[in-house]
Amino acid sequence: MIYSPASSILLKVKHNIIANYAGMAWLMALQILTIPIYLKLLGPEQWGILTACMTVYALMSLLDAGMSQVFPREVAIRYREHGSSKSLADLFYGFERIYWILGLLGSVVIFISADFITRNWLNIDSELIATAKHSLMLLGLQFLFQFPSACFTSLLNGIQAHKRLNKLQVFFTTTRHITAALSLYFINHSIIVYQLCFLIVTIIEFLYLRRLSWIIVEYRRRDLSWNSIEMRKVMRFSINMAAAVMIGMLTVQIDRIILSKLIPIERFGYYVIASQVAMALMQISYPITKALYPEMCKLKNAGRQIVTENRKLLAILSLAIIPIASVFIMFSHQLMTFWLHNIEASSVVSPILSLLVGCIVINVYYQVAYINWLVDGNGKMVLLVNVTSMILILATLKPVVAQFGVIGAPISWFILNSVGYLIGYFSLVKHKKIGFPDALKCSFVILLMLSFVPFAITHDFGYIFKICAILVILLLSGTVVYGKPVFTTK
User: Domain extents for the chain?
Assistant: First the structure.
């Protein structure tokens, strides 16, 4: 059988999507298994400190702003045209140096700020201050090695080596968690033991990925030098994207920053559990967008083909997110009780989770606009949405938390995600990247799912009602997945 180039590309994309989903499913299952274990072994206070460390790490990851989007894009273009060329090697050499410098900078910042964060920001008991400080210092060492690894994974993404990348991520992440869980159980129930285990495995992962990356580019480091012309071309777009992505990443973390100051550390830990579950659901869209993004970059000036790809992307995202989001919205209390085996934790986590999952559905559809802006090199629109989101969450988060408590935080997320969605789909329709009927149908699905959130939060409704609600959502939202404007183009 003879395959056309188009069918070969489609087959590769399908294989990449399957590999990405398999890796994501494993990592999600690992998270589901380990969070209750860590909560039990560490206790609510140390778990809260750990979530604060995660927040600090996420903030320092702002240093990667723009590069993780631009580097795979440039790798995909060069690798398709020339394979492992001198141009690709120069690009990788330049980005690796930048990642190393920024990783060192972030590590130093964490070290210097550890004492201030533990004594003046976190709402923790005095006897835990030393533990929190040492935990942050170990996090700084981990950041030094884990941050540059993002350069290596971006290279593998760019050449579409998704199978290999997912295998490596599954192996090293699983090793990290198994080592940490066993050490906590048999050695000491201390967050310091947890951090040491993660640090050791991270160093091993860094060394392996670095060696693999240089094998892929097929050039020796000593044969390369800083190519200012090559880097200037790429960094111009990267700098434009950096401000937009940095603000966007900061917006994602700003709720944790503010809440870590306003509420007790154990309450903060419960909020982070809900946030992590919601973010895990959003990752359902990542294997799809990660697999299609390099191909869409190649179709940048293909006109009608972009419209076709966007409609297929909307259909696939709808199939991926709607069923599982419906279940988590309606049965969050039951799922959290079964998962955490902690009545107090589940009663706090479940209503927050239902609201956050509704926000995630909005964000998943927004990703279609975001990807198109990346493909077009339109960093201004990304910057506009992210600046608007930052202003909205800063203006609304404290008042709603003061009025409604920790459950008010998702209300701010709903506001900013709705505004980003409206801006994104107005842009898509205006530039004829999708049809207006597609935008209307996506909006209908979002409103339909959000309308059931109040029923899910109140536990007065039985299983039969909630199951019927899910069936209604799936039946009516099928117009997006199977409707003619989504799957067919003339």
Answer: 18-240, 263-490
